[in-house]
Amino acid sequence: MSDIKKLLGKKIKLIRKERKLTQEQLAELVDIGTPNISYIENGKFAPSNETLQKIAKALDVSPSELYNFDEFKNVNDIKKELFDALDKDDKVLKVIYGVFKSLRFHVK
User: Superfamily for 4-71?
Assistant: First the structure.
């Protein structure tokens, strides 16, 4: 799922549900129609900058937080990112190894 509109919509929906808001309630807070919230959450529409700011305010997050898609990364992307970081910096490798050693005895 690399389409930014879909990722943004998925993030908005995730946060809305965490805040225990319905689409109708969010729409009212943002002052747009409920179908528009649905279209945004389903990645059919990209919100305008103004609407995005209103959504962020209604959800009590910064607009930039709406673009943090880390929880949607798949395992292969996470592995690649981690291995790239380990290859670039020996200090990172040593820190991660220390964390690994301390966790492997606690995680079963």
Answer: lambda repressor-like DNA-binding domains (1.10.260.40)
Q: Where are the domains of the chain?
A: 4-71, 73-104
Q: What number of helices (H) and strands (E) belong to the chain?
A: 6, 0
Buried b (16+ CB within 10 A) or exposed e, 20-35: ebebeebbeebebeee
Average pLDDT for the chain: 91
SS3 22: coil
CA–CA separation, 68 vs 100, rounded Å? Answer: 25
Question: Is residue 36 over pLDDT 70?
Answer: yes
Structural tokens at position 88: 């670039």
pTM of the model: 0.71
